[in-house]
Amino acid sequence: MTVLAAETPAADHALETPSGKGRGDENFPVGSFLIRKDLRPHVHAFYRFARNADDIADNPLLSADDKVLRLDRMSEIPDGVPGGAPGDDSPAATAMRASLAETGTTAQHCHDVLRAFRLDATKLRYRDWDDLMEYCRYSASPVGRQLLDLHGESRDTWPASDALCSALQVLNHLQDCGDDYRNLNRVYLPLDLMGEAGITVEGLTAPAASPGLRRVLDRLLDDTDRLITTAGELPGGVAARGLRWESATIVELARRLSRRLRRGDPLATRVALSKADFAAALIIGIFRGRRPRLTNR
Protein backbone atom coordinates (compact mmCIF):
# COMPACT_ATOMS: atom_id res chain seq x y z
CA MET A 1 0.00 0.00 0.00
CA THR A 2 1.28 3.48 -0.84
CA VAL A 3 0.69 6.04 1.89
CA LEU A 4 0.71 9.69 0.93
CA ALA A 5 3.30 11.96 2.44
CA ALA A 6 2.23 15.13 4.19
CA GLU A 7 3.05 17.39 1.27
CA THR A 8 1.12 15.34 -1.30
CA PRO A 9 -2.14 17.38 -1.33
CA ALA A 10 -0.32 20.41 -2.67
CA ALA A 11 1.14 18.33 -5.47
CA ASP A 12 -1.82 16.34 -6.74
CA HIS A 13 -4.76 17.52 -4.62
CA ALA A 14 -5.44 14.03 -3.22
CA LEU A 15 -6.75 14.06 0.33
CA GLU A 16 -7.43 10.40 0.98
CA THR A 17 -4.80 7.93 2.15
CA PRO A 18 -6.60 4.58 1.86
CA SER A 19 -5.35 1.80 4.12
CA GLY A 20 -6.83 -1.02 2.07
CA LYS A 21 -9.34 -1.92 4.78
CA GLY A 22 -12.90 -2.49 3.63
CA ARG A 23 -16.31 -3.71 4.70
CA GLY A 24 -15.03 -7.28 4.97
CA ASP A 25 -12.65 -6.25 7.76
CA GLU A 26 -15.42 -5.16 10.12
CA ASN A 27 -16.96 -7.09 13.03
CA PHE A 28 -20.44 -6.54 11.63
CA PRO A 29 -22.21 -6.52 8.26
CA VAL A 30 -22.17 -3.22 6.37
CA GLY A 31 -25.03 -2.84 3.91
CA SER A 32 -25.49 -6.61 3.61
CA PHE A 33 -28.03 -8.45 1.45
CA LEU A 34 -30.53 -7.92 4.26
CA ILE A 35 -30.69 -4.21 3.48
CA ARG A 36 -33.06 -3.00 0.79
CA LYS A 37 -31.25 -3.22 -2.54
CA ASP A 38 -31.83 0.40 -3.54
CA LEU A 39 -30.37 1.63 -0.25
CA ARG A 40 -27.22 -0.51 -0.21
CA PRO A 41 -25.19 1.87 -2.43
CA HIS A 42 -25.99 4.72 -0.02
CA VAL A 43 -24.98 2.64 3.00
CA HIS A 44 -21.74 1.79 1.22
CA ALA A 45 -21.17 5.45 0.34
CA PHE A 46 -21.38 6.48 3.99
CA TYR A 47 -19.13 3.61 5.02
CA ARG A 48 -16.55 4.56 2.41
CA PHE A 49 -16.67 8.20 3.50
CA ALA A 50 -16.12 7.25 7.15
CA ARG A 51 -13.51 4.61 6.30
CA ASN A 52 -11.39 7.01 4.25
CA ALA A 53 -11.64 9.72 6.89
CA ASP A 54 -10.60 7.16 9.51
CA ASP A 55 -7.62 6.17 7.36
CA ILE A 56 -6.48 9.80 7.29
CA ALA A 57 -6.70 10.01 11.10
CA ASP A 58 -4.76 6.75 11.49
CA ASN A 59 -2.02 7.52 8.95
CA PRO A 60 1.27 7.50 10.90
CA LEU A 61 3.08 9.49 8.19
CA LEU A 62 0.86 12.57 8.53
CA SER A 63 1.19 15.24 11.20
CA ALA A 64 -1.81 16.02 13.39
CA ASP A 65 -2.19 19.40 11.68
CA ASP A 66 -2.16 17.83 8.22
CA LYS A 67 -4.76 15.27 9.26
CA VAL A 68 -7.07 18.00 10.54
CA LEU A 69 -6.64 20.04 7.36
CA ARG A 70 -7.55 17.03 5.22
CA LEU A 71 -10.57 16.22 7.38
CA ASP A 72 -11.69 19.85 7.27
CA ARG A 73 -11.54 19.72 3.47
CA MET A 74 -13.56 16.49 3.44
CA SER A 75 -16.21 18.18 5.57
CA GLU A 76 -16.80 20.88 2.96
CA ILE A 77 -17.68 18.57 0.09
CA PRO A 78 -20.89 16.94 1.44
CA ASP A 79 -22.24 20.45 2.02
CA GLY A 80 -21.87 21.21 -1.67
CA VAL A 81 -18.39 22.70 -2.03
CA PRO A 82 -17.02 21.12 -5.21
CA GLY A 83 -13.99 18.89 -5.26
CA GLY A 84 -10.93 20.82 -6.31
CA ALA A 85 -8.97 18.74 -8.81
CA PRO A 86 -9.35 16.71 -11.99
CA GLY A 87 -10.60 13.38 -10.76
CA ASP A 88 -11.52 15.14 -7.50
CA ASP A 89 -9.50 15.48 -4.31
CA SER A 90 -11.83 13.25 -2.25
CA PRO A 91 -13.84 10.76 -4.31
CA ALA A 92 -15.46 9.36 -1.14
CA ALA A 93 -16.72 12.80 -0.09
CA THR A 94 -17.97 13.55 -3.60
CA ALA A 95 -19.85 10.23 -3.69
CA MET A 96 -21.29 11.06 -0.28
CA ARG A 97 -22.51 14.44 -1.55
CA ALA A 98 -24.29 12.69 -4.43
CA SER A 99 -25.84 10.17 -2.03
CA LEU A 100 -27.14 12.92 0.26
CA ALA A 101 -28.64 14.76 -2.71
CA GLU A 102 -30.39 11.63 -3.95
CA THR A 103 -31.75 10.48 -0.57
CA GLY A 104 -32.40 13.84 1.08
CA THR A 105 -30.65 12.71 4.27
CA THR A 106 -28.78 15.18 6.44
CA ALA A 107 -25.04 15.82 6.17
CA GLN A 108 -24.88 16.11 9.96
CA HIS A 109 -23.88 12.48 10.43
CA CYS A 110 -20.92 13.06 8.10
CA HIS A 111 -19.84 16.07 10.13
CA ASP A 112 -20.21 14.11 13.36
CA VAL A 113 -17.89 11.28 12.30
CA LEU A 114 -15.36 13.83 11.05
CA ARG A 115 -15.43 15.43 14.49
CA ALA A 116 -14.40 12.08 15.96
CA PHE A 117 -11.58 11.63 13.47
CA ARG A 118 -10.26 15.09 14.30
CA LEU A 119 -10.15 13.89 17.90
CA ASP A 120 -8.22 10.81 16.76
CA ALA A 121 -5.70 13.13 15.15
CA THR A 122 -5.21 15.25 18.25
CA LYS A 123 -6.34 13.36 21.37
CA LEU A 124 -4.36 10.34 22.58
CA ARG A 125 -5.91 9.55 25.99
CA TYR A 126 -9.38 9.30 27.60
CA ARG A 127 -10.00 10.18 31.22
CA ASP A 128 -12.92 7.92 32.09
CA TRP A 129 -15.93 6.05 30.70
CA ASP A 130 -17.93 9.26 30.16
CA ASP A 131 -15.06 10.75 28.15
CA LEU A 132 -14.94 7.60 26.02
CA MET A 133 -18.71 7.65 25.51
CA GLU A 134 -18.50 11.25 24.33
CA TYR A 135 -16.03 10.10 21.70
CA CYS A 136 -18.32 7.22 20.69
CA ARG A 137 -21.19 9.69 20.30
CA TYR A 138 -19.32 11.03 17.28
CA SER A 139 -17.25 8.08 16.11
CA ALA A 140 -19.95 5.39 16.27
CA SER A 141 -23.49 6.69 16.78
CA PRO A 142 -23.69 8.56 13.45
CA VAL A 143 -23.26 5.27 11.58
CA GLY A 144 -26.42 3.80 13.03
CA ARG A 145 -28.31 7.08 12.78
CA GLN A 146 -27.45 7.38 9.09
CA LEU A 147 -28.74 3.87 8.45
CA LEU A 148 -31.96 4.55 10.32
CA ASP A 149 -32.51 7.85 8.52
CA LEU A 150 -31.99 6.19 5.13
CA HIS A 151 -34.83 3.83 5.99
CA GLY A 152 -37.07 6.61 7.28
CA GLU A 153 -37.16 5.09 10.76
CA SER A 154 -38.37 6.96 13.82
CA ARG A 155 -35.70 8.80 15.76
CA ASP A 156 -37.12 7.07 18.83
CA THR A 157 -34.78 4.26 17.74
CA TRP A 158 -31.68 6.42 18.19
CA PRO A 159 -30.93 5.67 21.89
CA ALA A 160 -30.84 1.90 21.34
CA SER A 161 -28.90 2.35 18.11
CA ASP A 162 -26.41 4.64 19.85
CA ALA A 163 -25.92 2.00 22.54
CA LEU A 164 -25.25 -0.68 19.93
CA CYS A 165 -22.82 1.44 17.96
CA SER A 166 -20.97 2.53 21.10
CA ALA A 167 -20.72 -1.10 22.24
CA LEU A 168 -19.24 -2.11 18.89
CA GLN A 169 -16.77 0.77 19.09
CA VAL A 170 -15.58 -0.19 22.57
CA LEU A 171 -15.26 -3.84 21.59
CA ASN A 172 -13.10 -2.77 18.67
CA HIS A 173 -10.97 -0.64 21.01
CA LEU A 174 -10.43 -3.67 23.25
CA GLN A 175 -9.51 -5.86 20.28
CA ASP A 176 -6.93 -3.32 19.10
CA CYS A 177 -5.70 -1.89 22.42
CA GLY A 178 -2.13 -3.10 21.91
CA ASP A 179 -1.85 -2.09 18.27
CA ASP A 180 -3.43 1.32 18.89
CA TYR A 181 -0.78 2.12 21.50
CA ARG A 182 2.20 0.64 19.67
CA ASN A 183 1.35 2.10 16.25
CA LEU A 184 -0.39 5.38 17.09
CA ASN A 185 0.35 6.09 20.78
CA ARG A 186 -3.42 6.14 21.19
CA VAL A 187 -5.11 4.65 24.26
CA TYR A 188 -8.88 4.38 24.53
CA LEU A 189 -8.81 2.44 27.81
CA PRO A 190 -9.88 5.02 30.42
CA LEU A 191 -6.96 6.29 32.48
CA ASP A 192 -8.94 6.24 35.74
CA LEU A 193 -9.53 2.49 35.44
CA MET A 194 -5.89 1.89 34.60
CA GLY A 195 -4.84 3.92 37.62
CA GLU A 196 -7.18 1.97 39.91
CA ALA A 197 -5.69 -1.26 38.56
CA GLY A 198 -2.15 -0.01 39.20
CA ILE A 199 -1.05 -0.20 35.57
CA THR A 200 0.29 2.26 33.02
CA VAL A 201 -0.14 2.51 29.28
CA GLU A 202 3.29 0.96 28.77
CA GLY A 203 1.77 -2.33 29.85
CA LEU A 204 0.01 -2.45 26.49
CA THR A 205 3.33 -3.39 24.86
CA ALA A 206 3.55 -6.63 26.86
CA PRO A 207 3.12 -9.99 25.10
CA ALA A 208 0.17 -10.83 27.33
CA ALA A 209 -2.28 -8.96 29.54
CA SER A 210 -1.25 -8.49 33.15
CA PRO A 211 -3.76 -9.25 35.94
CA GLY A 212 -4.33 -5.50 36.28
CA LEU A 213 -5.05 -5.06 32.58
CA ARG A 214 -7.37 -8.07 32.71
CA ARG A 215 -9.36 -6.30 35.42
CA VAL A 216 -9.60 -3.17 33.27
CA LEU A 217 -10.78 -5.17 30.26
CA ASP A 218 -13.41 -6.95 32.34
CA ARG A 219 -14.68 -3.68 33.82
CA LEU A 220 -15.05 -2.25 30.33
CA LEU A 221 -16.79 -5.40 29.16
CA ASP A 222 -19.24 -5.08 32.07
CA ASP A 223 -20.12 -1.56 30.91
CA THR A 224 -20.26 -2.68 27.29
CA ASP A 225 -22.61 -5.55 28.13
CA ARG A 226 -24.99 -3.00 29.66
CA LEU A 227 -24.92 -1.10 26.37
CA ILE A 228 -25.66 -4.34 24.51
CA THR A 229 -28.65 -4.96 26.78
CA THR A 230 -30.01 -1.53 25.84
CA ALA A 231 -29.23 -2.26 22.19
CA GLY A 232 -31.42 -5.35 22.38
CA GLU A 233 -34.41 -3.00 22.22
CA LEU A 234 -33.43 -1.75 18.78
CA PRO A 235 -34.77 -4.50 16.46
CA GLY A 236 -38.26 -4.33 17.93
CA GLY A 237 -38.46 -0.62 17.19
CA VAL A 238 -37.41 -0.90 13.53
CA ALA A 239 -40.16 -1.07 10.94
CA ALA A 240 -38.10 -2.10 7.88
CA ARG A 241 -37.83 -5.88 7.88
CA GLY A 242 -34.32 -6.17 6.42
CA LEU A 243 -32.91 -3.52 8.74
CA ARG A 244 -34.67 -5.20 11.67
CA TRP A 245 -32.99 -8.51 10.78
CA GLU A 246 -29.61 -6.85 10.32
CA SER A 247 -29.81 -4.94 13.61
CA ALA A 248 -30.79 -8.10 15.50
CA THR A 249 -27.87 -9.93 13.86
CA ILE A 250 -25.44 -7.19 14.88
CA VAL A 251 -26.70 -7.23 18.48
CA GLU A 252 -25.98 -10.96 18.58
CA LEU A 253 -22.52 -10.44 17.06
CA ALA A 254 -21.78 -7.87 19.77
CA ARG A 255 -22.78 -10.36 22.46
CA ARG A 256 -20.54 -13.02 20.95
CA LEU A 257 -17.53 -10.74 20.57
CA SER A 258 -17.90 -9.59 24.18
CA ARG A 259 -17.86 -13.22 25.33
CA ARG A 260 -14.78 -13.94 23.23
CA LEU A 261 -12.97 -10.95 24.75
CA ARG A 262 -13.86 -12.24 28.23
CA ARG A 263 -12.03 -15.46 27.44
CA GLY A 264 -9.30 -14.12 25.17
CA ASP A 265 -6.24 -11.93 25.57
CA PRO A 266 -6.07 -9.15 22.95
CA LEU A 267 -2.36 -8.58 23.64
CA ALA A 268 -1.47 -12.22 23.03
CA THR A 269 -3.59 -12.82 19.94
CA ARG A 270 -6.23 -11.29 17.72
CA VAL A 271 -9.60 -11.92 19.39
CA ALA A 272 -12.15 -12.06 16.59
CA LEU A 273 -15.45 -13.58 15.54
CA SER A 274 -15.46 -16.78 13.52
CA LYS A 275 -17.43 -17.66 10.43
CA ALA A 276 -19.59 -19.84 12.66
CA ASP A 277 -20.35 -16.81 14.83
CA PHE A 278 -21.53 -14.87 11.79
CA ALA A 279 -23.68 -17.75 10.56
CA ALA A 280 -25.26 -18.36 13.97
CA ALA A 281 -25.84 -14.64 14.53
CA LEU A 282 -27.61 -14.36 11.18
CA ILE A 283 -29.98 -17.21 12.04
CA ILE A 284 -30.63 -15.81 15.51
CA GLY A 285 -31.06 -12.29 14.12
CA ILE A 286 -33.64 -13.32 11.55
CA PHE A 287 -35.53 -15.30 14.21
CA ARG A 288 -35.48 -12.48 16.77
CA GLY A 289 -36.31 -9.86 14.15
CA ARG A 290 -39.42 -11.61 12.87
CA ARG A 291 -41.71 -8.68 13.56
CA PRO A 292 -41.45 -5.13 14.90
CA ARG A 293 -42.61 -4.32 18.39
CA LEU A 294 -43.93 -0.99 17.11
CA THR A 295 -45.94 -0.57 13.92
CA ASN A 296 -46.40 3.20 13.96
CA ARG A 297 -43.58 5.61 13.11
Structural descriptors:
mainly alpha; disordered N terminus; 297 residues; 14 helices; Farnesyl Diphosphate Synthase; 2 domains; 61% helix
Record the SSE blueprint.
Blueprint: H1 8-12, H2 40-58, H3 64-76, H4 91-103, H5 108-122, H6 129-139, H7 141-150, H8 158-175, H9 177-184, H10 191-196, H11 211-231, H12 234-237, H13 241-263, H14 275-288
Provide a concise account of the structure shown.
The chain is an all-alpha fold and 297 residues long. It contains 14 helices and no strands.
Detailed description of the structure:
This protein has 297 residues and is mainly α. The protein folds into two domains: 35-115, no CATH class; 123-297, Orthogonal Bundle (Farnesyl Diphosphate Synthase), CATH 1.10.600. The chain has 14 helices and no strands. α6 crosses α8 and α8 (158-175) packs parallel to α13. It is globular and about 50 Å long. It starts with 7 loop residues before the first helix and ends in a 9-residue tail after the last helix.
Q: Gap between N and C termini, in Å? A: 46 Å
- Supply the helix-strand structural class: mainly alpha
Question: How would you state the average pLDDT, rounded?
Answer: 90
Rg calc: 19 Å
Task: Tell me the CATH architecture of the largest domain.
Answer: Orthogonal Bundle
Query: If helices are DSSP runs of H or I spanning 4 or more residues, what is the number of helices?
Result: 14
Helix/strand order, N-terminal first: HHHHHHHHHHHHHH
Apparent shape: globular
CATH class placement of the largest domain: Mainly Alpha
How many discrete domains? 2
- CATH topology type of the largest domain: Farnesyl Diphosphate Synthase
> What is the share of helical residues?
55-70%
The biggest beta sheet reads: none
Low-confidence segments, given as residue ranges, are 1-12
Say which CATH homologous superfamily of the largest domain is assigned: Farnesyl Diphosphate Synthase
Q: How much strand?
A: under 5%
Total strand segments: 0
